[in-house]
Amino acid sequence: MYMENIDIEQLLYSAVEKRQAFLQADPLHRGAWRIFNGFTEGCSDLAIDLMGRTAVVHDYGKSSAVDGHLIGDFLVKNLDFLQAVLLKKRNSADGKERNGMLIYGEKTDSFIEEHNVRYSVDLTMNHDNGFYADTRNLRKYLLDNMQGKSVLNTFAYTGSLGVAAAAGGAGKVLQTDLSNKFLQTAYRSASLNGLTFTRKNFRFGDFFPVVAALRKEHAKFDCVIVDPPFFSRTAKGLIDQANNPLGVINKVRPLAASGGVLIAVNNSLYLSGKDYLEYLESICDNEYLALEQIISIPEDFCCKNTDSMPYPVDPAPFNHPTKIAVLRVIK
What is the reported pTM? Predict the structure, then answer.
């Protein structure tokens, strides 16, 4: 919780110092980085991301106790490359405040660059960034391993995972999401990289009927990605990543081809890593399905001020509550 006696400037200074190596490795300042992770660095009401030369300040406080302008002044003073600061009051009743208000500069960045791939961003399109930098290592995995493969990206949102697969030479990419609006970003990202997406690369609709239709068509993919919200209820079905993490995985298992991979992402803060691993091991018999690897969350999301456990439950053996597992389909 944000408290008056917290020296927020000192916390921010310490966070920026810890990330100097990341900043120096990105001299053009086109990357997407977590510059302050309040949950583990002393102020749980605050998170700050760098999206190119735009700082995005996420204020999670219920009473807006975080002084966004003070934070903006600190960032501009200590990060001399900044061209804009955007403040998002995540619990505001005002939709414009939730999606972001520019408190410094004239415009936000329209793309970021990661592993030599560009991704279109619209930083005021939704309450979050529209791009999840914490899955950076997953995009690198897709870049390195999808040459000539067919890829299904469910819960695609703005489509960055599918774009990474396409940039890595995937032979076929199908992205599915309930929202046509958000997936339009994937068209722009493809264009930034000289790739071509058409309507054949997308299916819009609720996860449950879309997956059921693909199963009815006997569709098979070399790689199936399932990255759902931690909780969602529609007329077609329920997603509860804390209490039923295998639900969505079992829905897409028949779509993964023999020898392919099923990549499962679980971002429930209240599901421990140990429990999630036990769930996965319950379906991995090494005859039909095997746990091949865990993909870690980048270091800039994992900086801590102390060795105490900052999360409601321990994510170990994963290094963060966002837990990514690659399952190999044997038969």
Answer: 0.95
